[in-house]
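Minutes, project check-in
Item: structure for the 192-residue chain
Input as provided by the requester:
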Amino acid sequence: MKRLLTPWLVALPLAALCVVSVAAEVKTREKTQVKFEGMLGRMLNMFGGKSAQDGIISATAVKGNRKVTLGDSAGRIVDLGEEKVYDLDMKKREYRVTTFDELRRQMREAREKAEKNAREAQKDAPSEKGEPGKELDVDFDVKETGQKKAVAGYDTRQVIMTITVRENGKSLDEGGGLVMTNDMWLGPQIAS
């Protein structure tokens, strides 16, 4: 169900969000950025806009049985007490309310549809076995950079993990592949 936000309806949820985020038990900020190299990467950066170049930043706050996630143009409030999910569209100034029962129904329908498609794909698949698929090598490389800083009052250290996927027996240049780099700040184990 979609609703057009009137100014007073916008002010009330935003005030509640501010109260929840100020007095939140847990707050996080997350930056997600995907980079593609080569010609494809240049095209995506050129036409992808600000989010393709700078990444997507979102903030999450949890207080009691409510969780608020806000991004540049959208947000989501999950209320376990009311068993409702509020999807916010900041640009259109609209919000959509979905109950947990509706979510369960949608998930059940999607699972049934996927099972049906899988059965049909098995019927249509040729029974004879052809050439086996390409074998892939996956390499993990984890390195500590030596950088240290305090995050949320805890001493952390920077670790960079690189995952490389390529065709067995070939280099990335010869057979192509995928390289993913993840930059992490790791801290001590904290009791929940």
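Outcome recorded: The first helix runs from residue 7 to 22.
No further action items on this chain.
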